[in-house]
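hey so i finally got around to running the thing on that chain from the lab meeting. sorry it took forever, my laptop kept dying and i had to restart like 3 times. anyway pasting the input first so we r on the same page abt which one it is
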Amino acid sequence: MARAHRTTRVKVRRGTLISVDGIEAAEIVAAARAQLAEVPRQRRAGVSLWDASGVFDDLVVAGRDAGAPSPRTLLLLYAADLAFRLRWEIRPALAEGRVVAAAPYVATPLAFGRAAGLPTGWLKQLFRFAPRPAQACYVDGSSARSGFIGFCCEQLTLNVSGFSAREAVARTRQHLTASARSRR
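ok and heres what got predicted. didnt touch it at all, straight out
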């Protein structure tokens, strides 16, 4: 007679992705760290920051001789950087059952794209590869001195985009606020 083997179920803990979006990098990162501080230490993976791939640093090194990128180009670069972050930082942490905060994630570049007048359908298609976060936070920052929005606004001053950096920040903030309200 064959003996029955007892199987043990392995409890798989799914990871958690928290998105933190906003205007000012320092405030976004602080909010992401505050979100992770509420998680038990052994489950924390850390904060995935924009430009982990270094593509925007490369753009700065290229200097003005390379020309000023358009808003569409900046968003394509952000999508490439986000794909890098997902591959090397976010998905491995999620696979280990850990909690990772993405600062910023998708809402920030979407708001910037809308502020720049790019088609919503194109923007959604561009970021459809990004998994939905389990939790989403919006930080209403005071300015755009640093981070993705600050970088984009600086680039727009070099570009003939039809609106100023200040207008770009105001429009981006409007779109982020509307996005945050619609998630509630």
